[in-house]
User: Which sequence fits this backbone?
């Protein structure tokens, strides 16, 4: 990448030397942005489904089966079944924000409405309770339309759905 920046710099400098200062500032900004995005990106370890579910369960305040009724960075979930933890309402407000409008780089939001297995953590913002989930944990649609980022598997979608249902039954027994 540094080589690319040097080539662009030399090429542009020879052609437009009178705009040297502006070009230098622009290139510096581009390089800083590229490095900043690399530094704040969330890196997730990969697990098989069974390990991912166990890690996700341990790292979560609340585990539910829920239906997403509003998507986006401030999403809404209607709770179908509580599998771990306590909640005060059957409707949960989700967010990717932490404090002072800062976005958690690993926090994620549902893009599609539907039924999910959620691994959630509680966050209090301006006195109100919200829930977040990490893209590194095992939150997923129950139909496995989209796989969790941390899932490493050779199993078919059908096998993953069966394994998910077995895991849900195991969590029900733990309650």
Assistant:
């Amino acid at each position: 990448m540094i080589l690319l920046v040097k080539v662009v710099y030399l090429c542009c400098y020879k052609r437009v030397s009178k705009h040297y200062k502006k070009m230098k500032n622009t290139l510096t900004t581009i390089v800083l942005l590229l490095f900043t995005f690399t530094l704040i990106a969330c890196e997730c370890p990969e697990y098989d489904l069974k390990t991912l579910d166990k890690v996700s369960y341990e790292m979560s305040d609340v585990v539910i089966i829920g239906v997403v009724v509003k998507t986006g960075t401030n999403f809404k979930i209607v709770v179908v079944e509580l599998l771990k933890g306590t909640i005060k309402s059957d409707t949960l407000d989700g967010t990717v924000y932490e404090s002072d409008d800062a976005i958690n780089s690993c926090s994620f939001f549902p893009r599609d409405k539907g039924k999910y297995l959620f691994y959630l953590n509680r966050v209090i913002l301006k006195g109100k309770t919200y829930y977040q989930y990490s893209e590194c944990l095992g939150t997923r649609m129950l139909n496995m339309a989209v796989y969790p980022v941390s899932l490493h598997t050779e199993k078919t979608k059908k096998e993953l759905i069966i394994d998910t249902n077995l895991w849900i039954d195991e969590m029900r027994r733990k309650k």
Notes: The CA atoms of residues 5 and 11 lie 10 Å apart.
